[in-house]
Fold:
Amino acid sequence: MGFSNKLFVCAFGAMSLLAGCGSSGSNDDKPSSPAADTPDTPSFNVSGCHELNDADAQAQLESAKASIVDILQDLGEGDFHNAQVISAQTKSTFKAVLDKYPTSCEAQLGYALGIVTDLVNNKEIKGFIDTVSNKNDLVDMNVKDYNRLLITADGKLLTSVAQTAMAEAIPSLDSAIIYMRNIVNNKDFTCKYTYKDRTFELDRGEFAPALAGLFVAKAALTLGASMNIDFSENGNYDWMNDLEEYSEYETSKVTMRQVESLLSKKSSFTTIYDNWKPSYKNIPNLLDSAISYVELGLQYGIDESKLGTTTQMNDPYIVGDGEMSDVSVKDFQKAIDSLEYYRQGLRTGVEVTLPQGSKVTINIAKFFEITDGFQEYLPYHHVNDPSVWFKPDQGYGWANVLTYKSYAEHELGVAIKSELSKTMALKDFYAWVSTRYSWYDEDIPAVPEVCMDIEDANDYYYNCYATTISNCTVSFAISERSYRSNDLEFVPSPVKLSSDVCKVENGVSKFATAYQYQSENYFYFTDASGKKTISLQGLDNGYLEGNVIKDYTARELSKLIYFPDFTFGGVFPGMTAEKFWNVIITETEEDDDDYDEDVWEFVD
Structure:
């Protein structure tokens, strides 16, 4: 286990293992879904740490503390339900003692653990995280799955339910922070526990990082509750039918209205709810506090190491430079220096060096000032109507041979599927161009074939047809050399190709053919005025230099792709278009050097 992981485990162990705690008493230090209500921050204060003189109350604490190890074991094994059941019992005991003795740090620590256990086991938050993090299941989801998982039984959006749960959890977390801050402020408060015949002692060195963890948790909950992450349409995900049932042969039925809507500057997606904006903007301060308390814990370890190992013999780890030390003072100091580096990033910005030596300044705090969505920072672009998705636009030439890179392939598939659908109930269909060569006689020219995978309710078929082409009309025939399923007696009718994908020159049919990939024409980039610069097709296929196919380099892209704000709202202070592209150019130089060039084999 790495040092940071050890520290994290020890920190949260400080909130949980409570046998034998004691203190000397010193205190030296635009939305489509409704936003969750912002919670009220608890206003109570606690100060000081005093031992109990009440035998009955102490007995209650000892009984509750005896269950702590069981809670930790259940949490470790993933049995969150049983952990919550036990925690509910112990939490009420700690609360009862706190009500009577509010300065009992033992009870404060136990009650804070109960709060954390409840948070870990919150079914709405956990259910949402499990749903969106299970990538394997998400890949296989269909629309019914989305509506089942992301809409609750009573018709509410899971995103909204989870955000409400996050918001409602924050006041309890604030209470835990108040208790833990009091514990940290009492430097002489310690907690001893016995595990496997060894006595451990936890102190400020562990309590302070644990408190830091609570601040990070609050930042995460605030982030989750603040942002509009609803991508439904009118309260459901039926719009995703278009994506699930997407077919390149039925473009008229395909719609990108919701995707376009989500990407629009007018969209409420990724905006911060108005009532949550102050809390969202305060996240950097929460992270700053977390850094401060981690540093406090580390510094406590450094200071304690100056007294030798005597006072550390029961600590989870020993700080020092001797043989018995687990962590060196140098490592702790290095960690503090690193944290100061990140603190600077939270405040005024920090310079980051990228792998190829480029330097970029990042101001993380500015990220949390972006409250009206991130769409306005996307590069200028235009989403095309689905009717032109499969038409050639850029990155293609005219070839005198029909190949799998020819955009005519799509038109052929559309026509053949339409004809088949009149006599068959198709479940699946796919057509492609295959160029057949003679394996016995190299002088025989290549012959283009059109092949199809066909599936109906009863069977699966695989058929190929030889083609003859005259004046951009493709005719089909069954050839002895063509593989086909004999039980499907079907020959497509001739298909007249459109002028978008075929033209006739000197009596020869020529086909619009991609340089590299038969890409869909989903969108194109523009400049600030809306003038088209390059399409996705063009970007994907590159351009010709003589007969050599060239991919666009970062230097060339700098004249084709434009951003509204290269500082990204101040996240990259001082960033300009020139600086941005110089960074991209520098960081991609090796990739450009490794590029293997292809040759365009056809003469236009």
The radius of gyration is 33 Å. The chain is about 40% helix and 15% strand. Confidence is low (pLDDT under 50) at residues 1-20, 24-32.
